[in-house]
Amino acid sequence: MFSGCGKPSTNFSVAHRLCQSTQRKIREHTMNHTAENRLKLPTAVAACLMVGLLAGCTAPPAQPEPPAVDRSAQPVSLAWSSKENVVSEIQVEEQLGLAIAYVERQRKLTLVARELADGSLRWKREASVGHNPGGMRMRLPVFEHNGSRMAAFVESVKGKSERLVVIDLATGKNTSASIEVDFMTNRPVECEETWCVEGDRKSGEPVNMRYDMEKGRWKQLAGEDLPTPKKNPDDRFVGEGLSSSSQRGPGEELLSYARDGKILWSVPYEQVFDSYYSTDNGWEWTTFEEPQQIFVGHGSRIDYQYHPEGDAYVQDWNKDAMMVGIDPDTGKRRWAVPGADQDCSGIVETRQAQTRSTFVTCRFHQALATVQPSTGKRGALTGLEWDVAGIDAATGKERWAYDMPGYEKAVELAKANNRILGDQKYVIVPMASGFAAVDSSTGEKLELSHVLGDTVLCTSDRDSVEVRHIDGYEQTAYLRVPQTVQPCTRDTQKATKDLPLYAEFQRTGKDQQRIAVLPDRAGMVAYRMPDE
């Protein structure tokens, strides 16, 4: 009948016709067909089976899937741009087709949503800066509930009062009744699949509230009902489960940690860092998971605490900033890196290279400067000795290190304020021979051309933005705003109108949406990724 499992024999057409005839007969028979019919069916069915075998043997082998098109060498294209002062991270909601961000105009804030496709405005809402410490960046915490993407923020009512609002991101409209705020509220943050806010009444009484997703309303919480408890009602959160107390003075400020609804420990902040360190001069905490969990924090001294007379003083960058690793179970310090500065004075991008077990930072081994308290001006650094290093988060030990340039070159680079955006594998480091790409895990040094294309993404720092509070609060808020991201040339790090290849967006993790929207000095800029 067939040769191996090769081409069909000439009996195929006969069998095929027999099969078709049999199928018609089967449809014509009723459930009470006779024994004769039942005896005839097996022969006919065999013919059908034979056709199936023949068809199975003669079908061509399954063709492999065509290889995916390598888009890395294709350029991105410019989709659209806007003209506005973006003061927050840009929230891209691809399913809703939106790019959402806070923007500032005439010292007022607006939450705007732009169409991903063309940048046109879909909706906008007046917003308030709230009463967060100035170093905390604006962000928009988002949750999905009953199929809707929702966000919470503090709304400004004609600059005279504030309301806590929850909106549907698709329309910008309220999903529930907003509530008037009669206390100095911070901006909403995530807490156990919903939002929480904290603040103080003018009398100093602390207020804590939580949004009930099911009932669609804000509920005031007593101290014992807080999802993450605090040692004192007026303490402020500085990290996940971490809070600092409001007491000030030698040894008075406490760092506390709460987990599973209870406070595990409280230790003096100066014991974690050093004398005169305080959260008043900023904070940053990160949790590392491997090989064991550890909290890594950055802190710095507050000048007015140890120079109260207002006289000129010498600032020591090796002693006035520090990174520490503390045990989550006890609060005891495991290690310290004096002079650590992950901002690297605006010369090197380090945070993108962080892994589950390592981080990269600059270290000032020596750097002295005279500061005039009356003006805040700092004189030139003297005796500058610093490097950039990969640090093991569990032990604080150095994995690799390279010297950073001397003072004059460092000032030149800092003034340029345009540095190549790092990625999860490489840190772009200035060396005596020029810039090099350093593997953040191993310290291996490579030429930039081996890692980067001709056009890359660079970042630039921006000055803080001044925003006014609502009526009744004289204090002006100074917002720490996100860095701008723009194309620049690899070898000169100067701005260019050339667009990077798709590979550059893959390298920097900016390829997660079909359209990437990045902050620029002039507004939002949207880049369209090449077609698949």
TrEMBL record:
UniProt-listed InterPro entries: PQQ_rpt_dom, Quinoprotein_ADH-like_sf, WD40/YVTN_repeat-like_dom_sf
Residue ranges annotated for the Pyrrolo-quinoline quinone repeat domain, each copy included: 259-444
Listed Basic and acidic residues bias regions: 227-238
Region (Disordered): 220-252
Matches recorded under Pfam families: PQQ_2
Official protein name in the record: Pyrrolo-quinoline quinone repeat domain-containing protein
